[in-house]
């Protein structure tokens, strides 16, 4: 099968370049159906999916070489790719750091090296600022057999490089229209645009001024020219009270200002300052949608070249802002130079007058341009005809030794570049860490000086003396055992409390007797407790010792990952030092230094940090330090413990950077977490998005999702949700978990309730959880539909779940939600609930789970579940049952941690 490798600025979300690629692919296939196409892309998966082609990442040099070795023809283009706005480095050909001329010029160079024909396809050339750029552009064209340019201005810039245009022995050069002139829109595209505008309350009879701008600061800063555009648009809108402006981005790539039009358009909207008349689009668009949207406009004002071309395609009058010669060139092509501004600072009366004139002459524009457009569209087919003609003349030969040697040297250089890049990144991270550590030391010293006076004042107060007495009473006297008894009584009943606390009560009674008889036990210092624990763990017959950090005090009754991991390790013969967080040493914490569970000893974090040297001396063949959250103190601890034979394990259980952004992890430091990642012996992550986040630092992150505890939920409560049905016409949707506004999407939930009212559905929401102080204010309007129960112990959830028809996970869209692996989804499945998820797309493959992105989709899922139940389709399909049971079987904490422990104990992974 003939194979063509196509390279250009593809996969970066630039509508113009994506339209060129789509047009090229369509035309190649229409003229030659039997083709294999490989495209270089910044986002290969999307390019492959959207166009049904193979794709390779642009900077994957080995992948690029492999694709070229398969190719019978290499096509470079189209688009304006030969310029030196951002300089040129001739040493970067076929290397990871190439850009612009050297990046695109690498394809003709590779074609020349391998003896493969090359076509430069529908490109723009110039302008140039350096002779070096002209030289390397000339070399790229000389290494091709055929080249097509999209305008005469590019031909002139090519002449200036020293390239001989009419050389009979050189490449054939033709000037042909931009391939996007062949882009067409369908009725479906028009309908999609109409629905999009209606959703924004833009009615079909409203007249629209479309605006497409891009960031540009090479002639003058953005802040100098953008106000001129805003003034002209504002003046036009004031003259036309019925007109609306719609701001259309042609690239939304969050990399730089140059690649994100939405930033500039947002600034424009602020400067225009008529918010009810200006509609800003901030999301990426597809080429067909963008052209259909321009078709809907009365006038399009375009700075992006392909906004101008799309206006011509659909007959919408164009006002052009020529930031580069290519924009003026296309306006000359259609004979409308008078509507092209060669300056980005037109006077507001001039720009408003241009828009008004085009607005009033829309019919004349369409009549004049339509026949010209048909001719341009016909000529675009010539690009592809020339490419296929070159393909048909192909005679591939076996590679010579010199070619093979050159390819191997390129591969070696690529490997060296990657290694150098990793070392540079590690060096940068270490430099940042050192700077942060120095800053922390300075800050801590200053803080100590500032707080010491306040601390002395507090310690001398009567309240502090009473608090110390209460702490000693509750943590160091027999009263603590009775406190634990009443906690167990609350959650487990009298039998459970007696069973769990019997030994403790007996011990309490004995101790209380001695206490009353003034036979008090000696109180140990933190250092003495640490020495005692070191002796216990060193003396017991254990597989090894684990120090494990936690944000929670140990409580056997709860279902957090860190508590279950501790119990699992202890049950499998490991000794565990459970380091529980507290903010200062005066904060009350139960069971300090005690064996809270067989082989698990709890200590506070301050005790751990102060006595790190003692814990580093625990005598054990296998020793692990497991970090559950990347606090800066644990970075320093991990480095010290590693020197004492500990292997450091970092469990990435949350998107801590995003938690920090919503002010939920004030201690977080990004460079600290990166350093922990780089220096850990073993890494786990609870979700694939978290693995991908750190993939540029480590490629060996072990996926270890969260799980659930069947015994905690109650063995007899499995599928409890299928045991009781609600009244016909009602639907009960429940949620349990954190309700913090930082990530729980309250707006979405309340809009679902509004939509249910519109559809006459009796929807009831049941909320179990904590973390949102203003919850009653939020749900006041929906008091008859929403019931809030507060915090419920996991062992009691079955009492509430049995009345639910489905369960909900409702997170805000963003990285915080997308990265999590919520424990509650396993618990929902255990109870037999269908699940509606918003904000965590990677749960899409879970059984009985409906992942939605809008209120309408959520309502569709609700109605589908309700329809099945009211039509007696209560039995879950067998394949769904099998899938759910398989997932539940492998999602218990025991299964999760068995996999984790096997990976740790096998030691088949490489320690740093």
The helical percent reads: 40-55%
Strand count: 27
- Name the beta content range: 15-25%
CATH architecture of the largest domain: 3-Layer(aba) Sandwich
Radius of gyration, rounded? 34 Å
Q: What would you give as the CATH superfamily of the largest domain?
A: Glycogen Phosphorylase B
Low-confidence stretches: 514-522, 908-912
Mean pLDDT, all residues:
87
Description:
The protein has an 8-stranded mixed β-sheet, with helices on both faces. The chain has 35 helices and 27 strands. β5, α5 and β6 form a beta-alpha-beta unit. It is of the alpha/beta class and 912 residues long. The longest helix is centred in the middle third of the chain and has 59 residues, at 401-459.
Short description:
The protein is an alpha/beta fold and 912 residues long. The protein is built from 35 helices and 27 strands.
């Amino acid at each position: 099968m003939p194979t063509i490798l196509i390279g250009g600025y593809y996969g970066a979300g630039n509508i113009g370049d994506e339209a060129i690629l789509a047009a090229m692919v369509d035309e190649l296939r229409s003229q030659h159906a039997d083709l294999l196409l490989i495209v270089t892309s910044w986002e290969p998966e999307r390019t492959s999916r959207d166009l049904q082609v193979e794709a390779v990442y642009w900077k994957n040099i080995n992948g690029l070489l492999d694709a070229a070795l398969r190719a019978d023809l290499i096509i470079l283009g189209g688009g304006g790719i030969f310029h030196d706005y951002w300089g040129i480095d001739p040493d970067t050909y076929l290397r990871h750091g190439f850009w612009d001329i050297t990046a695109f010029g690498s394809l003709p160079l590779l074609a020349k090296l391998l003896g493969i024909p090359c076509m430069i396809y529908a490109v723009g050339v110039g302008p140039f600022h350096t002779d070096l750029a002209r030289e390397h552009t000339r070399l790229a064209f000389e290494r091709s057999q055929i080249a097509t340019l999209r305008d005469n201005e590019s031909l002139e810039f090519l002449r200036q490089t020293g390239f001989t245009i009419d050389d009979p022995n050189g490449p054939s050069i033709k000037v042909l229209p931009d391939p996007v002139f062949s882009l067409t829109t369908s009725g479906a595209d028009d309908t999609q645009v109409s629905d999009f505008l209606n959703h924004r309350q833009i009615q079909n009879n409203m007249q629209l001024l479309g605006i497409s701008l891009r960031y540009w600061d090479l002639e003058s800063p953005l802040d100098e020219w953008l106000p001129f555009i805003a003034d002209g648009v504002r003046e036009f809108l004031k003259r036309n009270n019925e007109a609306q402006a719609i701001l259309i981005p042609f690239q939304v790539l969050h990399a730089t200002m140059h690649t994100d039009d939405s930033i500039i358009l947002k600034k424009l909207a602020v400067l225009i300052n008529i918010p009810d008349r200006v509609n800003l689009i901030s999301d990426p668009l597809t080429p067909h949608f963008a052209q259909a949207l321009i078709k809907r406009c009365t006038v399009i004002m375009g700075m992006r070249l392909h906004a101008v071309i799309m206006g011509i395609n659909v007959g919408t009058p164009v006002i052009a802002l020529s930031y580069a010669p290519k924009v003026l060139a296309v306006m000359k092509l259609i004979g409308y130079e008078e509507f092209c501004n060669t300056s980005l600072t037109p006077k507001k009366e001039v720009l408003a007058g241009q828009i008004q004139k085009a607005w009033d002459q829309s019919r004349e524009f369409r009549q004049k341009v339509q026949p010209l457009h048909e001719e341009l569209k016909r000529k675009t087919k010539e690009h592809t005809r020339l490419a296929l003609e070159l393909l048909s003349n192909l005679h591939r030969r076996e590679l010579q030794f010199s070619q093979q040697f050159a390819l191997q040297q390129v591969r070696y250089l690529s490997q060296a570049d990657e290694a150098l890049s990793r070392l540079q990144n590690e060096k940068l991270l270490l430099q940042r860490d050192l700077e942060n550590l120095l800053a922390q030391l300075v800050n801590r010293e200053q803080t100590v000086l500032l707080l010491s006076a306040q601390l002395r004042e507090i310690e001398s107060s009567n309240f502090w003396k009473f608090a110390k007495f209460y702490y000693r009473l509750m943590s160091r006297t027999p009263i603590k055992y009775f406190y634990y008894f009443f906690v167990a009584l609350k959650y487990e009943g009298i039998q459970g409390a007696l069973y769990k606390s019997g030994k403790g009560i007996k011990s309490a009674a004995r101790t209380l007797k001695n206490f009353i008889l003034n036979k008090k036990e000696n109180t140990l210092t933190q250092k003495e407790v640490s020495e005692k624990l070191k002796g216990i763990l060193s003396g017991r017959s254990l597989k090894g010792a684990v120090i494990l950090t936690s944000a929670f005090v140990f409580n056997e009754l709860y279902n957090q990952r860190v508590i279950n991991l501790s119990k699992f390790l202890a049950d499998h013969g490991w000794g565990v030092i459970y380091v529980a967080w507290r903010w200062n040493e005066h904060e009350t914490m139960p069971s300090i230094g005690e064996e809270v569970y067989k082989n698990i000893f709890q200590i506070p974090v301050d005790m751990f940090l102060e006595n790190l040297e003692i814990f580093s001396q625990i005598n054990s063949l296998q020793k692990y330090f497991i970090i559950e959250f990347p606090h800066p103190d644990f970075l320093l601890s991990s480095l010290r413990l590693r020197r004492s034979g500990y292997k450091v394990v970092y469990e990435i259980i949350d998107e801590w950077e995003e938690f920090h952004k919503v002010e939920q992890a004030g201690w977080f430091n990004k460079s600290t977490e990166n350093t922990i990642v780089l220096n850990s012996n073993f890494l786990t992550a609870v979700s694939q998005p978290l693995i991908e986040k750190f993939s540029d630092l480590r490629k060996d992150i072990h996926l270890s999702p969260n799980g659930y505890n069947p015994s905690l939920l109650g063995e007899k409560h499995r599928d409890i949700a299928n045991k009781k049905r609600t009244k016909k016409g009602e639907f009960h949707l429940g949620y349990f978990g954190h309700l913090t506004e930082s990530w729980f999407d309250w707006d979405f939930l309340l809009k679902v309730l509004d939509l249910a009212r519109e559809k006459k559905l009796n929807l009831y929401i049941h909320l179990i959880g904590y973390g949102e102080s203003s919850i009653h204010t939020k749900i006041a309007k929906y008091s008859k539909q929403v019931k809030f129960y507060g915090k419920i112990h996991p062992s009691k959830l079955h009492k509430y779940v049995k009345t639910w028809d489905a369960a909900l996970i409702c997170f805000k869209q963003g990285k915080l939600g997308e990265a999590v692996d919520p424990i509650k989804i396993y618990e929902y499945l255990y109870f037999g609930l269908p699940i509606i998820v918003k904000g965590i797309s990677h749960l899409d493959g879970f059984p009985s789970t409906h992942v939605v992105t809008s209120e309408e989709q959520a309502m569709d899922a609700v109605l589908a579940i309700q329809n099945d139940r009211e039509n007696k389709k209560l039995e879950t399909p067998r394949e769904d049952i099998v899938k759910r049971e398989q997932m539940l079987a492998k999602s218990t904490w025991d299964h999760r941690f068995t996999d984790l422990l096997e990976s740790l104990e096998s030691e088949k992974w490489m320690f740093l």
